[in-house]
Specification:
Rossmann fold, SDR_fam, NAD(P)-bd_dom_sf, NAD(P)-dependent dehydrogenase (Short-subunit alcohol dehydrogenase family), binds NADP nicotinamide-adenine-dinucleotide phosphate, 14 helices, SDR_member_12, 8 strands, 2 domains
């Protein structure tokens, strides 16, 4: 059964040797399962242009959550294009093992491991200061670290862990690295910040009445989706904030990929959808493309999936108010202020 289903994407791909018409692409997207699974990737990849070999030479990119899954695949993809990559991990030993795997695939690649818990604002500050001290310029930052919590826990600083990992830590890291990202930006080559969000954000409006998720029954899935929505709006807000510095900011969702995180956090989903899940490379493809391709360097504040801009709401009237967007910015600024 598994073999039959996994062969299907290849069949789809060989039947579609031409780029997918936009309408068909949009329909796949709205139907979710075909768009988010391997089928969607297989159908769309005929329209993907190969990224130029060595196209990332001379560029330094920082990737968080790089020890497994999509983060590790992103590092492999960027290293394969000649980028110098810093793998930000929580556990040095796991990070070094992931680095060995990258080097096995790309011998001689410039890949290093750095330890930082992105949910800890103090650790983010420490790490960013260290980067500013040793790097004249950074050209890319990928906020990939993510968590689907099973119970409500707080960081040492008193923030709910999902909010801290997906929103507060990345916000602070981006702002703290601003000087080196600005230094990395050239007149025709902006520095690039990418948020790896999730299609789950479509299920959640922007809500700021209980950002630390203290009220009501705890649901890890609901908090995950809510913070993913925050990431997408935050990418738009940071895009405006950083535009004058030659830094573009994008968000994306990877579809559904077979990673350790999915197997561990969503065992039922993993079992049922297993044969349809993307590989980690397929899930990470758009992240690598957002760092490497010309097109996303010409825009900012866009939400992407499979190398195409996607709507951030199914219904335009569901879009968040300017007041809610401003409240998200205020929350991020005040929660990450140095005390
Ligand atoms: N796979 C999918 O289908 C899918 C779909 C939508 C969105 N995503 C998102 O894509 C990203 C990558 O996920 P994945 O599927 O590749 O899962 P994964 O294998 O569990 O990778 C998540 C990575 O984030 C790291 N991480 C978690 N909390 C961290 C923290 N506080 N500081 C630093 N690193 C931290 C983990 O490090 P440890 O090794 O130390 O735990 C791990 O390396 C996540 O943000 C995930 O939510 C994935």
């Amino acid at each position: 059964m598994r073999g039959g289903v996994t062969a299907l994407p290849d069949l789809v791909s060989s039947l579609l040797a031409v780029p997918l018409p936009r309408l068909v692409d949009a329909v796949l997207d709205r139907l979710v399962v075909p768009g988010y699974s391997r089928l969607g990737y297989a159908a769309r990849r005929a329209g993907f242009r190969a990224l130029p070999a060595g196209g990332m030479a001379g560029r330094t990119v920082i990737v968080t959550g790089a020890s497994s899954g999509l983060g590790a695949a992103t590092v492999r993809g960027l290293a394969g294009l000649g980028a110098r990559v810093e793998m930000v991990v929580r556990d040095r030993e796991r990070g070094e093992r992931a680095r060995e795997a990258v080097l096995a695939e790309h011998p001689g690649a410039a890949v290093e491991v750095a330890v930082c818990d992105v949910s800890s604002l103090a650790d983010v500050r420490r790490y960013a200061a260290e980067v500013r001290d040793r790097e004249a310029a950074v050209h890319g930052l990928v906020h990939n670290a993510g968590v689907l919590a099973t119970e409500r826990t707080e960081t040492a600083e008193g923030h709910e862990v999902t909010l801290a990992t997906h929103v507060l830590g990345p916000f602070l890291l981006t702002r703290e690295l601003r000087p080196v990202l600005r230094a990395g930006a050239g007149p025709t080559a902006p520095s690039r910040v990418v948020f790896v969000s999730s299609g789950g954000m479509y299920t959640a409006p922007l809500r700021l009445d209980d950002p630390e998720s203290r009220e009501g029954d705890w649901s890890g899935g609901a908090v995950y989706a809510r913070t993913r929505r925050m990431q997408v709006v935050l990418a738009e807000l940071l895009a405006d904030d950083l535009a004058g510095d030659g830094i573009v900011v994008h968000s994306m969702h990877p579809g559904w990929a077979d990673t350790p995180g999915v197997a561990r956090s969503l065992p039922g989903f993993h079992r049922v959808t297993g044969p349809l899940l993307r590989t980690d490379e397929q899930g990470a493809d758009t992240v690598v493309w957002l760092q490497a391709a010309a097109e996303p360097g010409h825009s900012t504040g866009v939400f992407w999936h499979d190398r195409a801009p996607r709507p951030t709401h199914w219904l335009p009237r569901a879009a968040e108010s300017p007041q809610a967007r401003a409240a998200l910015w205020t929350l991020c600024v005040s929660d990450t202020a140095h005390r």
